[in-house]
Write a structure and sequence with these properties.
Two copies of one chain form a homodimer.
Chain A: H1 22-29, H2 33-41, H3 48-61, H4 67-74, E1 79-84, H5 90-105, E2 109-114, H6 120-131, E3 137-141, H7 148-151, E4 159-161, E5 172-175, H8 177-190, E6 197-200, H9 206-221, E7 230-231, H10 236-248, E8 254-257, H11 260-272, E9 282-287, E10 300-303, H12 306-322, E11 331-334, E12 338-339
Parallel strand pairs in A: 1-2, 1-3, 3-4, 5-11, 6-7, 6-8, 8-9, 9-10
Antiparallel strand pairs in A: 10-12
Helix pairs in contact in A: 1-2, 1-3, 5-12, 8-9, 10-11
The structure holds a DNA duplex.
Chain lengths: 355, 355
DNA sequence: CGGGGAGATGTTTACGTAAACAGAATGAGT
DNA sequence: ACTCATTCTGTTTACGTAAACATCTCCCCG
């Protein structure tokens, strides 16, 4: 082989080209590759002068450590997989942001997979896809229709979930959906409304079911009539359509929407129909998205501490990674406080006799 | 060494434990590891019977290919890095969703990094962090204050950017900010407003600057007075605060807000002050977030085709990856149409004599 | 002034995979 | 039957890194 020629040995075999390696740096700096490795990782002491020489060589060659080789050697990727159903929903978005932030603080990056349609097979596929990726742990936000059994992931893979239906199967972190929903409904009852109607999220969704059940239970506990809930799909659009129906009825004085978007759509429809909020109809949402405070009227809603949840999810992963902790049964709950604004008020007129 | 004992050789050296390897599968199936590799990749034909045997062994051992080893061998990661400033902003959120979707279609996953504060060093740090990660390409959405020079990433790294200030330095894809802004302002002028006020995004932000400049230019071209713009930071909160100021003045009849959130905050403040929208003040936003159509009144705004942008960004990366295409000067523009809703109308009374 | 230890550096090896090459088995055509 | 092509499978090797182990160099202290 030629002696001084460096960098010329690229492509002699069928291998795809790669950047300068630790060996190239070593040769240029006149040290062993192990010393370069030591400088690069900072794991062991290197004489200041030597380190400088190595760093110079690195800069000169534009060296960056090969992450694949590192991962192979060390057996981990410093990366967490994240599965979410609809990144766009503000809730997910905030949680994701928190996950990314918390992960970065731990020196981990986040690999994101979105599940287009919330069918069980899609989620399984996403998990398959992701568990074959370079990840050390998996966070699932809203698995929607997927069941724990269908997931079939490597038994050693640390998992954290914010979907309540996975409690008992995987460690979970989630908002206190039930408490928040109960507070919302009770707030409306306390204002003097005879009963509270509900715009539900899509059936099969964990949070949607929890909120609907809590709504119903609160009414039952208070001895109130439980009206037929309206079926929504989380979108403002459904909220608007359902709102058009509600606007025609004068027996509806209070509505608990399963999220803020649907609440916004509802209010839009009510405004259009000339029904006043909250004078004619009180509305409560769920999530407390950023815009909730700036809707008209400002929306009374249940706040989800998405940031906290995201942070906790990462912590759950980290605990499993580090000290082999078994957290299968773990379930962290984050409070979901009711934020009272101006979309709720006492009903103008009591109407005991409906229809 | 013992003969039949498999799986027992874990941990004999200082290596961290890993799952079953291709060799373990090969031993169990009674074939060579290369054949297992062939089954695993599907790259070359394997006799059906042999394949079955291998697949059985894989299932039995719970084998999953080691991504790090693959990446090391093949020189790529099938992964794209993504840097965004605030995941939460609906715009980014939608673009990210599209990027993830498009990347997945190409068999790539997406590694996400959020930049907390939009300072130049933060972005550089994020790039450093990410370019040392396992990625084959880098997409930057809103680098905010970072300059192209400060990025200093590996020269071979394919990059795609949706920030206009990077045009000429890196291939870019972005909405037609100027055209959209011009249409918004012109729409208000055409309705008969003497001039149009502007709530700007944070200084130093590319899109914010573009929108402000286009706003000013349109007014100048029409021979109208250019009022001092209001300084916002994208948040609904600033929109609200600025709105409180605007509500006190009766010379403001039309406002072009640099995004929908600020427009929502503005409208909130106007409502509170008893100023009617659009009767007293017309408002136009930018982005067309999902809620824009359901604000009250439904918001006239400039739509950004975030989904298209995200998709195009991935395409730009792919073209650079595949056929060594040089796209440095590339700049794809996506139309940004004005969506007229009900937050804009002709001014009630012409006031030619201002002040 | 010599022995001992600490600090700094070098050498060897393995991580799991897939490309390149090589060899074996099968079948088709004459 | 015999060659030759085709299909399938096995062997060797390298990817870039870092742990484990082996030296080698100094300096301190008796």
């Amino acid at each position: 082989m030629s002696s001084e020629v460096r960098g010329a040995r690229r492509g002699i075999k069928g291998h795809p080209k790669t950047g300068p390696s630790i060996g190239d740096v070593a040769r240029l700096a006149g040290v062993s590759s192990q010393t370069v490795s030591r400088v690069s990782t900072g794991s062991e002491p290197v004489k200041a002068e030597t380190r400088e020489r190595v760093l110079d060589a690195m800069r000169q060659l534009g060296y960056a450590p090969n992450h694949a080789a590192r991962a192979l050697r060390q057996g981990n990727f410093r990366s967490i997989g994240l599965i979410a159903h609809q990144v766009i929903r503000t809730g997910e978005s905030k949680t994701i942001e928190a996950v990314i932030e918390a992960a970065r603080r731990e020196g981990y990056s986040v690999s994101l997979v979105d599940v287009e349609s919330p069918s069980s097979s899609d989620v399984s596929e996403a998990v398959q896809h992701l568990s074959h990726q370079a990840i050390d742990g998996l966070i699932i936000i809203r698995a929607e229709t997927a069941t724990p059994a269908a997931l079939a992931l490597p038994p050693t893979m640390p998992v954290a979930v914010s979907d309540s239906r996975f409690i008992g199967h995987h460690p979970a972190v989630g908002a206190d959906q039930v408490g928040g929903s109960r507070a919302a409904v009770q707030h409306l009852l306390d204002l003097g409304h005879a009963t509270v109607h509900h715009i539900a999220g899509p059936g099969g969704s964990g949070p949607a079911d929890l909120r609907a059940t809590a709504w119903k239970q609160t009414l039952v506990n208070a001895g109130r009539e439980v009206p037929e809930p309206f079926d929504g799909d989380w979108s403002a659009e459904t909220g608007y359509k359902i709102g058009n129906e509600i606007a025609k009825r004068d027996d509806v004085t209070a509505v608990f929407a399963a999220n803020d978007e649907m609440a916004a759509g509802l209010i839009h429809a009510l405004h259009e129909a000339g029904r006043r909020v909250p004078d004619d109809v009180s509305v409560v949402g769920f999530d407390d998205i950023d815009l909730a405070a700036h809707l008209w009227p400002p929306l009374t809603t249940v706040r989800q501490e998405f940031h906290q949840i995201g942070h906790d999810l990462v912590e759950v992963i980290m605990r499993q990674l580090g000290g082999r902790e078994q957290l299968t049964g773990y379930h962290g709950t984050v409070a979901a406080p009711l934020i009272v604004r101006q979309s709720t008020a006492a009903p103008r007129k009591r109407r005991r006799t409906r229809r």
